[in-house]
Amino acid sequence: MTDLSGDLTAGHYLASGTVHTGRRNLFSLQPGCEHHIGTLISGSRTRLQRFDEDCDKIVRGLAMLDTNDEMLAALTALEALPVNKSWSDAEVAARDLARAVIARVERRIYR
Residue 105, exposed/middle/buried by CB under 10 A (0-12, 13-18, 19+)? Predict the structure, then answer.
């Protein structure tokens, strides 16, 4: 996932080093939609390890957002299922958990 001296990749995202220390180019490599997102620039010349760690978090976060949409859709479908008499306690608990997760995610999105 991370090679702090080289490229950082997660999902469809890549942060590649440039010839300048403290800069990385951020790309989306989704098939058919490859594009340059922007350039990440360190605010400090002395804390490059921290910059690399922050870039890694950014790349991982973007990849998580992609999967989050799919997970949110699955949770929404689960949440919408009506409870009937054949549901076990575990299935009802899973549905209730899905509702709680959706509520938390929606609160974060709207902040």
Answer: middle
* 51: amino acid identity, one letter: F
Q: pLDDT of 38-89, one tens digit each? A: 888 888 878 888 888 888 888 888 887 776 666 667 767 766 767 666 777 7
| Secondary structure (3-state) at 105 | helix
Specify the DSSP class assigned to residue 22.
T
Q: Tell me the C-alpha to C-alpha distance, in Å, between residue 47 and each of 25, 50, 55.
A: 18, 5, 13
Residue appearing with tokens 């991370």: 2
Handedness of CA 56, 57, 59, 60 (dihedral sign): positive
Query: Which of 19, 21, 20, 15 lies closest to 3 in space, CA to CA?
Result: 15
The full length of the chain comes to 111
In order of 3, 19, 34, the CA distances from 45 in angstroms are 19, 14, 30
